[in-house]
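Dear colleague,

Thank you for sharing your sequence with our group. We've completed the structure prediction you requested, and as agreed, I am returning the results in plain text so they can be pasted directly into your records. Please verify that the sequence below matches your submission; if there's any discrepancy, let me know and we will rerun it promptly.
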Amino acid sequence: MDSIDIGMYIAYVFFIVALAAAVILPAINAVKSPAGLVKSLMGVGGLVLLFVIAYVISGSEVSTKAASMGVDESGSKLIGAGLIVFYFVLAISVVGVVFSEINKALK
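Please find the predicted structure tokens below.
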């Protein structure tokens, strides 16, 4: 066992601890404050709705290069939907940052 193997095992342990904390701590917080859970579920529901809309409008065309890499029509549609969601969320975040900075400057 060399130092790279030991480092990988330590990284796996830290990853498992972080994953457990990411699941357990919000569950504890949700039990303490159910109103916060409703807001979180509304946010997740909005993202799921956005993905469904993006999936419906995305194309299923497959180029020859993509087909050579094993992408079929459903994979192409999922990739397109993911890109549409990414662009939409990116645009919302940029508008939010610009609005926040302008709002701070005016106050």
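Summary note from our side: The first helix runs from residue 3 to 32.

Kind regards,
the structure core
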